[in-house]
Amino acid sequence: MKKLDMCEMQILNHTLQVQISHAKDLLRDMENGKIDLAYVQKMIDMNKAEIIETHKRKFKYWQGRNGNWNSYLPKEGTEPPYGRLVSKVSEERLINAIIDYYIREDKTALAPTFRQVYQEWRAIKDLELSGNSILRYNSDYARFFQDSDFERLPMNEINENTIRKFMLETIQRLSLCRESCKKMFSYIRNTVKHARIEKIITDNPVEFLELKQFSKHCKEKAKPNEEQFFNDNELLMIQKGLEELYGDRPMFIPRYGVEMG
After folding, report:
1. Under DSSP, is residue 216 helix (H, G, I), strand (E, B) or coil?
2. Is the pLDDT of residue 256 over 60?
3. pLDDT above 90 covers what percent of the chain?
4. Residue 176: pLDDT above 90?
């Protein structure tokens, strides 16, 4: 079984937390008689199946030579795909044991993802932005973050290393220039700041990160000659504008500097 990297593990952990929370809500609704029992049971079964599929991506899951079904459950001090061994005589009993662990023993609280916190920050930021600026912010987000593993990470699981990894990978993938890199870093920094203000996180994962750590990896695109120098038509327009100024304000010195330059 391929060992998952840090970002993949964080995504699976969050997915499990969401599925567990949903299953618990359904069980409470069923106990309180809020909705049709047959419907609730169907939704619970579907949710349990999703929990097991996510669990299999995180931990080893196999049938032994003796016919028993085996897997691992989370264990402090042990990294997946290993953990506390659980073995049952049938796959059904193993599944029930895994589900029972997550539903009854899991105490983790859900934290909003980077995308959700970013959207909260934007809801406030947009109040001071013009329509064109809002469109630019939306375009930047789609370019840098949309559909990435990073945007789905819970804010309380984002640290200096996850930010550094995402920044460097995105700079390389998109061949970002310094200005684009600066924008991306500012969005992350402002989202982290919002999360701290709202007490979603207590640590500051960007505290020891600086823009220059990333901008040195950026690629600056050389401007073509036509963008670096005035063409003949543009020079004629400038000359015409200066000549008009001569008649209006002949003693205005700066325009002579422009012409001599």
Report:
1. coil
2. no
3. 48
4. yes
**Identity of residue 202:** T
Cis omega (within 30 of 0) on the bond before 154?
no
Tokens of 54: 């996510």
DSSP 70: E
Q: Determine the pLDDT at residue 30.
A: 63
Q: 81-90: b or e for each residue (b if 16 or more CB lie within 10 Å)? A: bebeebebee
Residue spans of the domains in the chain: they are 6-105, 114-215, 225-260
pLDDT at 229 over 60: no
Q: Note the pLDDT of residue 113.
A: 87
Q: Taking 60 as the threshold, does the pLDDT of residue 128 lie above it?
A: yes
Beta bridge partners of 84: 73
Pair 36, 57: CB distance under 8 Å: no
**Is residue 11 scored above 80 in pLDDT?**
no
Using CA atoms, how far residue 72 sits from 26, 50, 128, in Å, is 26, 17, 51
**Which of the listed CATH numbers 3.40.920.10, 1.10.10.10, 3.30.450.40, 1.10.150.130 matches domain 114-215?**
1.10.150.130
Residues 6+ apart with CB under 8 A from 206: 160, 163, 188, 189, 192
Neighbours of 170 (CB within 10 A): 19
Taking alpha carbons only, the member of 143, 144, 155 closest to residue 194 is: 155
The span from the first CA to the last CA of the chain, in angstroms, equals 68
**Lookup: tokens for 159:** 């640290």
Cα–Cα distance between 261 and 259 in angstroms, integer?
5
